[in-house]
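Shipment paperwork, digital attachment
Item: protein structure file
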Amino acid sequence: MAKLTNEMKDVLKVVGKGGTVVHLTTCSADGKPNIVGERFVIHFKDEYILIADMFAQKTKVNLNENEIGAISIAHPVKGHTWVFRGPCTIIQHGHPDSMVWQGLRAGDVLAEWGDWAEKEPPSEVPPDIRPPKLVQRGVIALKVDEVYSWSPEEAGKKIL
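Attachment content:
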């Protein structure tokens, strides 16, 4: 297990109706990848990254077959570039609050991050980036096991 640095947490705390763009990559059992771009992202504690589950149909299928995923980030303002890799799950509304996955309790996650659309966007998000009211089905959680850089100087280097 890798622990996110304060710098990583700072970049991953852009919540609300826009902000940091991350790409979540999952892979089916037969090797077919799926990549989705997401804006609703946050760190949780020291070792998890959460993404709102709004349009994750192929992601759900892949995670049922293969729980390993990767999240890449290229922050448009802060200039940080990382890839986070580890097991993923989807914590949906309706799961028992007592459900625990990789040390993460469903009730804790959904209580804080169960409705992303209510969060206020950070000041760095341009006013024209405002998606319509979306229906959040739950939260995709990645437990960070490894972190890689893909900055030009350290591309592919494991840093955590």
